[in-house]
Design goal:
By secondary structure, this protein is of the alpha/beta class. The protein has 22 helices and 13 strands. The strands form three sheets. A six-stranded mixed β-sheet has the order 9-10-6-11-12-13, sandwiched between helices. Strands 2-1-3-4-5 form a five-stranded parallel β-sheet. A hairpin with a 2-residue loop joins strand 7 and strand 8. The radius of gyration is 26 Å and the shape is globular.
């Protein structure tokens, strides 16, 4: 479109001059906005209220080249419209906040910002420039250079230390034993972590476990039972009885919902009554949802907790219930027969922020149940793990590949023989030249570019298959996805965005916000979350909060994770990546941290059970 091309050229010249307010350019932006006014309005009948222009952008991006040219409407210049709105707002327009708010809407604020790849476009702006001025309306309007300085993700992995579980115990047991574990949680991968670690690193013990909640996440994992509990000293649990029926009735949507569990004490009484005749066989309870630990609080059994959810996950949203829970949780955490840990420093920080001491130790997730190691047989393919509701990621990759291909054709790989310069693989998924599903593109490739991108939906979803890809591209939708740890455990090179806009999530975590008024901090120790921070660590949309919380995410702490600021930067860097060096660095870190984690899991088991160090090989 000549009008938009001309505007972009003049806008870039304005940016190079430092974004001075130019009256003619502002008038040009206003004229373009008026011309396309019908395309900008909310469509109440469309999904998420998407405007006609947003719908046009989605359709045009995902359409095959031949079909795109025949669409009834010209392609909508979504990012140009956002730039025009920002420019008019920057000029001092009296409706500045409304203009920025509408720009945010057009980038997909009602649909988890899945249209926002503006940092990968040719416009000298990103969504951070919109958010930064929306969130501080009383401050002077901030220009992109200032926004970049303030909201770049720079992490020093040594800044945030975390504790490992301490070794405690008193009761002597010298004979090999059978440990019966009853697990209460809704995330099967999370509960599989300690079970796999004990099976592998407490060799004198046989682990017999039972999942009291039968329906658990992730539903997409094929043959979940055999995958997660594949170790010879573990076995799948298929028991269906009054206990499993109770949990189905009390948590009916356990695999898909985060609905609060009501009347936890009544639930606990029902559980104690139903399970009474079987409790004598139980050695340890394992809970992976902190609130569900209260079900066994009064049974006087050893309890281990491994938490990968916010502390208030599944807790009713009333002040009275939350105060009760916080007090009981802290009391349990300090008990000699209870051992609690969290899966990552991000959660450690959030738990401490809410209840203070005792600060829970971190035990890294190793996901050994994947039982797979990186072997890039699909050397020319990159797996893409996209976000829920993703709609234009793959088509934007596809549209940017031709330009990237011309650049990469002259580049050379530093990966040597490990790069695997093999012929492009003609897998069954590649038969469709433009694979669409519900209007969304699911693969991207260009004849001159060395790698083809495909989504998980085009695979059999098995870890053994995932390990065959050259690399994985992860677009996060939470700060501590277990998927990240699964791929890191397999030493599959991981590429992730570093642009802060890609860490503004919409997971409704402010529902879990709040602080216990009776919390205490360790004397003389600095809290993990800065006391002078103005935002809560649960605020997923605040740039000031997310800039800090990103520093606690293992996405930016683990070595050898490859980061990119935009899709063009990703496409430029991929062909020159030394994949062998990246994978080797991941393997070394896995080996070093595995020793620490194994010791921590044995120590936590000893703390709660009192079994001696010799049995647990501490």
């Amino acid at each position: 479109d000549p009008a938009w091309d001309g505007f972009r050229r003049r806008f870039i010249e304005n940016a190079q001059a430092g974004y001075p307010v130019e009256r003619e350019l502002v008038l040009e932006a206003q004229g373009l906005l008026q011309e396309h006014a019908k395309d900008l309005a909310v469509d109440e009948l469309a999904a998420y209220g998407a405007s006609p222009g947003m719908q046009n952008f989605f359709t045009g991006c995902n359409a095959p080249p031949g079909l795109a040219a025949s669409l009834p409407q010209r392609p909508f210049c979504l990012y140009g419209v956002v730039a025009a709105l920002w420019l008019v707002a920057q000029s001092g327009h009296p409706d500045q906040q409304d203009l920025l708010g509408h720009a945010n809407f057009l980038l997909g604020s009602t649909m988890r910002h899945t249209l926002d790849f503006m940092e990968s476009s040719g416009w000298p702006l990103s969504s951070l420039d919109v958010h930064a001025n929306l969130q501080r309306p009383d401050d002077e309007f901030r220009l992109p250079a200032q926004v970049r300085r303030e909201y770049s993700v720079v992490v020093d992995a040594g800044v945030h230390s975390h504790k490992q579980a301490r070794q405690q115990g008193h009761r002597n047991v010298h004979a090999p034993i059978r440990i019966v574990v009853w697990e209460i949680g809704v995330h099967a991968s999370l509960s599989a972590e300690p079970l796999q670690m004990w099976a592998r690193f407490v060799p004198r013990a046989e682990i017999a476990h039972r999942n009291l909640v039968r329906d658990q996440y992730p539903q997409w994992l094929p043959d979940r039972c055999a995958t997660l509990y594949s170790h010879p000293r573990l076995q799948c649990d298929s028991i269906e009885d009054e206990i499993s029926a109770l949990f189905r009735r009390r948590i009916p949507h356990s695999a898909t919902s985060k609905d609060p569990v009501e009347r936890i004490d009544d639930f606990a009484q029902e559980f104690a009554a139903v399970a009474r005749d079987q409790l004598h066989d139980v050695d340890v309870f394992l809970c992976t949802v902190a609130y569900l630990c209260l079900l066994v609080d009064k049974l006087r059994f050893p309890v281990l907790g491994y938490f990968g959810h916010p502390l208030l996950f599944m807790v009713p949203r009333t002040d009275e219930v939350r105060r009760m829970f916080w007090k009981r949780f802290v009391t349990m955490a300090a008990s000699a027969s209870v051992g609690f840990a969290v899966s990552d420093p991000f959660l450690q920080m959030q738990y401490e922020y809410q209840v203070g001491t005792p600060q829970l130790p971190v035990i890294r997730t190793h996901a050994l149940y994947t039982d797979a190691t990186h072997m890039p047989m699909r050397a020319n393919e990159v797996l893409v793990l996209d976000r829920p509701h993703e709609c234009v990621l793959m088509c934007i990759l596809q549209r940017l590949l031709p330009e990237a291909a011309s650049f990469s054709s002259g580049s050379s790989s530093s990966g040597g023989r490990y790069r695997g310069d093999l012929p492009r693989q003609e897998s069954g998924e590649g038969a469709d030249e433009w694979p669409l599903h519900e209007g969304r593109l699911r693969a991207a490739s260009s004849p001159a570019y060395p790698y083809r991108f495909i989504t998980r939906a085009l695979t059999d979803r098995r870890f053994s298959t995932f390990a065959q890809f050259r690399a994985v591209l992860i677009w996060p939708y939470d700060m501590d996805l277990i998927t990240f740890y699964e791929f890191y455990s397999m030493a599959v090179p991981i590429f992730m965005p570093s642009h802060l806009s890609k860490y503004l999530f919409q997971q409704d975590h402010m529902f879990y916000d709040g602080r216990w008024e009776a919390r205490r901090s360790s004397a003389g120790e600095r809290t993990l979350w800065p006391e002078d921070a103005k935002s809560s660590p649960f605020n997923e949309t605040s740039l000031d909060a997310v800039r800090l919380t990103a520093g606690y995410s293992d996405y930016f702490r683990f070595p050898a994770v490859q980061h990119f600021n935009s899709i063009p930067e990703l496409l430029k860097n991929l062909p020159s990546t030394d994949f062998f060096a990246v994978a080797q660095s991941m393997v070394r870190y896995n080996q070093d941290s595995l020793v620490k984690s194994a010791n921590a899991w044995r120590a936590l088991l000893r703390r709660s059970t009192g079994w001696d160090a010799e049995l647990l090989e501490l």
